[in-house]
Structures are given as structure tokens and as C-alpha cells.
Amino acid sequence: MTIDKIIDTIYPLPEISREKLKQYISEVSFPKGFCLMEADKVVPYIYFLKKGIARAYASTENNDITFWFGTEGEPIVSMKSYVEGKPGYESIELLEDCELYRLEISKLKILFNEDIYIANWGRKFAERELIRTEELIISRQYKTALERYKDLMKYKPYLLQRVQLGHIASYLGMSQVSLSRIRAEMK
């Protein structure tokens, strides 16, 4: 996915503003298994997935809890680092070889002060991330494991082909055995 399309998906910019923003965006590549962001560390970048898939997770004593998957066109950001410049809660692992666009947060904040269109773009970006988080919380609180699985099949079926079942089960808030049982019942 092109950076222009990603930018416009968040909030369309006038050409002059888009070019200002793009001058601070670089392309980077990392292999499958790479830890793009580590919990308890400040992350100075926002990434956008050009190609590949990633997962966000938090570690407990016994296991990792996956709470987000990102695919082509989606941002990868630690909102705690982005908003407050403080260490984030999550770790981000690349589940495939990935090509990404990288934007340094400090440069973006300078642009916010120079260009109202880019400032509005940043506001829309943060609003979208807030809504995504809200939807995740509501899903976890009010939907059964079966309902969450059906939503995954309806809205993100490609994850079932690209992500190992252990990560899917964790994302859905269930054990891999429970996920296998649900999948068997639905056949």
C-alpha cells in the first residue's frame, strides 16, 4: 500500500501538506519475528504497514496476551509514547517479513505547529486509534468467545490464513483448545 493512500485514509491533505509530511517518512524493512516495539520503552516512531502483518501483545508471568493485529495500511504506534513521550505498555512483533513506513514523532510534532492541515491529520489519527481501542474493549467486555470468533471470520478472515492459531486464541481471549472446539462446532 502506498504512503499516499495511507495518509488519505487517515485524513486527506492538500498536496503541499502531504509533501511536507512525506519528507519525514522513510521506508524500512524487518524480518518475521522482529520486535518492532518493546513494552516499557519509549518508542520515538509511528510506523505504517506497507506489506506484512504484526501483532501487539502484553506479557504476563505465564504467557503473552495478543490484543491487536495490524495488516497492510494500518498504523503501528504506542499511544503512550506518541501522546506523552512515556514508555508504552505493549510489545509489537512482526509475524511476516514486513515493509514499513516510519515517521519520527518529534518531527511530526514540529509539523503540527507549522501546518494546520497536518495538525488536523494528527488529530484524526489519534481519534481513529481511540475508536479502535474502544471497540476492542467493548468486544472483550460484552461478547462471548463464539461471538468474537464470528466477528473475526466476518471482518478479518484473512487472519486465519496468516496468523498461527495460538495468537488468534489469545486475541479472542480463549485457550487454543477452546478455539479448536469452537471451530469444530462451526463446521
Task: List its traits.
187 residues; alpha+beta; 4-stranded antiparallel sheet; 8 strands; 50% helix
Could you explain how this protein is built, in words?
By secondary structure, this protein is an alpha+beta fold. 50% of the residues lie in helices and 22% in strands. The chain is built from nine helices and eight strands. The protein has helices at residues 3-10, 15-22, 79-84, 105-114, 116-142, 145-155, 159-162, 165-172, 176-186, and strands at 25-30, 35-37, 45-51, 54-59, 64-70, 75-76, 91-94, 98-104. The strands form two sheets. Strands 1-8-3-6 form a four-stranded antiparallel β-sheet. A four-stranded antiparallel β-sheet has the order 2-7-4-5. A hairpin with a 4-residue loop joins strand 4 and strand 5. Helix 4 (105-114) packs across helix 5 (116-142). The two termini are 34 Å apart.
